[in-house]
């Protein structure tokens, strides 16, 4: 059986599928009481399930409205397609911004190497070191490494298109491989597993848009299994170290492997839903921005910093798992989360349709959707739209779009002015 590769990135299909699969894994496989420290007993509450379904339906409704709106008429249609050279320049600039951010991020990591307690590293895993790196990074400058999505997207689109020269293709390949090496390093040694997943999703999305074809289900399964193996391998250096030290077994052993698989299924996949169910069973904080570190950081600059996070508010342990997007918007917005879910659903589906109708030409519509694409998978664990990894690239793309609109308007004005001058000359 085959499906279109672009269907893998259809929010209308993927987001409900992931939420439902995650829910079923929790409902069927999570034990009522887990032996893992930091995992609460399974939450059995009809109100939680009801709120979960309502919020998910609100997102699905947003998908429907985007499809209906774009079928009726092309609203907000602004042509911002320009010569490929413009995006090549943007690609180079964004790549160097990413390098600056990564330099300051890794500088924090290198500064901590001399102070590493090897015994602590062996007892508690590499996550201890990763947390120290995060806590000691240079806020602002190191965050610029989140821009990597833009040069990765543009390089992938250039590579898969037919326009650029060999020099541009070679540079694009270099950018893709370099960013791949950096994100893999983050995944293995800096607790940044999601970075590498974003990397794979962005390249796959660009390929699906510019090289549309049908793909076997078996091929998709192979890719997913490869990603799962990478996640499991990375976990050897986190929970695997802890388990092997506590139980006196070899790090790379069958016992450790089985423990890691059980740990991931309970502490992450199932516990993400369980934490969500606990949050949905309680009242909302109505804090609006507590699930967005970026917005909280901005508000703290003007003295607004007394936010309570979802774990403290709902007395959730911090040891394992997160809370998925539905639980987070309930925590921040309460029943107004229905409107938020609708708008997010509309936003995702709108730009998916726009990107699919782009005729394999680089545009800001495509870049926006490629930036959105990791959300189709990551909102099962976080509020992707409130994170730096989305907001920084998105803001930059909006600025690029504004620049292009300005350029188009100036060009249009010049064309009209030239025609008027020529008409007057001919009249004379």
List keywords for this structure.
428 residues, mainly alpha, two-stranded antiparallel ribbon, 17 helices, 2 strands, 70% helix, globular
Q: Could you characterize the architecture of this molecule?
A:
It is a single chain. The protein is mainly α. The protein has one domain. It contains 17 helices and two strands. Helix 7 packs antiparallel against helix 8, helix 10 runs parallel beside helix 13 and helix 15 packs antiparallel against helix 17. The longest helix has 40 residues. It is globular, with a radius of gyration of 24 Å.
The rough form would be described as globular
- Helix content percent band: over 70%
Bin the strand percentage: under 5%
Question: pLDDT under 50 segments (min length 5)?
Answer: none
How many structural domains are formed by the residues? 1
Structural class: mainly alpha
Series of secondary-structure elements, N-terminal to C-terminal: EHHHHHHHHEHHHHHHHHH
Could you give a short account of the major beta sheet?
Answer: 2 strands, antiparallel
Gyration radius, rounded = 24 Å
Strand order of the largest sheet: 1-2
Q: Count of helices?
A: 17
Distance between the termini: 70 Å
Number of strands: 2
Q: What's the SSE blueprint?
A:
Layout: E1 2-4, H1 11-29, H2 46-72, H3 84-113, H4 118-124, H5 127-136, H6 149-160, H7 166-189, H8 193-210, E2 214-216, H9 217-247, H10 254-281, H11 293-300, H12 310-313, H13 325-333, H14 337-356, H15 364-372, H16 375-378, H17 388-427
Antiparallel strand pairs: 1-2
Helix pairs in contact: 1-2, 1-10, 2-10, 2-14, 3-5, 3-6, 4-9, 6-7, 6-8, 7-8, 9-10, 10-13, 13-14, 14-15, 15-17
